[in-house]
Amino acid sequence: MSNATTPEQLPDDAVLLDVREQDEWDAGHAPTAVHIPLGDLPARLGELPEADEAHPLPIVCRSGGRSGRAVAWLAQQGFDVVNVEGGMKQWAAAGKPLTSEAGDAQVI
């Protein structure tokens, strides 16, 4: 099974794990995403949404680097995860829904 997917392959209401920092999350994120910054991930594993081999958890960051590291680490821990190629930049470019804390969603 591939360790990657694209925003276009995911439904608009897909539950994502967003590993960006707080300011990036506040600026704009997928409405159904769960936010756990990459540095907090080891301490917050109990908060991960459920996933299985048939429905792995998509992980996203700004452009794919941090989420790639998260996917590698979580896979070693036995989690079924995939990296969202292109990150939130590609999510937005694909016309996927965005929301923000301020109401003017953008990706930073």
Could you provide a short overview of the structure?
InterPro entries: GlpE_sulfurtransferase, Rhodanese-like_dom, Rhodanese-like_dom_sf. With 108 residues, the chain is an alpha/beta fold.
What features would you describe in this structure?
The chain is an alpha/beta fold and 108 residues long. It has a domain at 14-41 and 51-93: Oxidized Rhodanese, domain 1, CATH 3.40.250. Helices cover 23% and strands 13% of the residues. The protein has 3 helices and 5 strands. The protein has helices spanning 22-27, 65-76, 87-93; strands spanning 4-5, 17-18, 34-35, 57-60, 81-84. Strands 1-5-4-2-3 form a 5-stranded parallel sheet. Pfam families: Rhodanese (PF00581).
What's the arrangement of secondary structure elements?
Elements: E1 4-5, E2 17-18, H1 22-27, E3 34-35, E4 57-60, H2 65-76, E5 81-84, H3 87-93
Parallel strand pairs: 1-5, 2-3, 2-4, 4-5
By secondary-structure content and strand pairing, the structural class works out as: alpha/beta
Write the H/E string, N to C: EEHEEHEH
From the alpha-carbon coordinates, what is the Rg to the nearest angstrom?
13 Å
CATH superfamily of the domain at 14-41 and 51-93: Rhodanese-like domain
Q: What is the tally of beta strands?
A: 5
CATH class type of the domain at 14-41 and 51-93: Alpha Beta
Ends apart, CA distance between termini: 30 Å
**Which word captures the global form?**
globular
Strand order of the largest sheet: 1-5-4-2-3
* Unreliable residue stretches: none
Strand content: 5-15%
At CATH level 3, the topology of the domain at 14-41 and 51-93 is Oxidized Rhodanese, domain 1
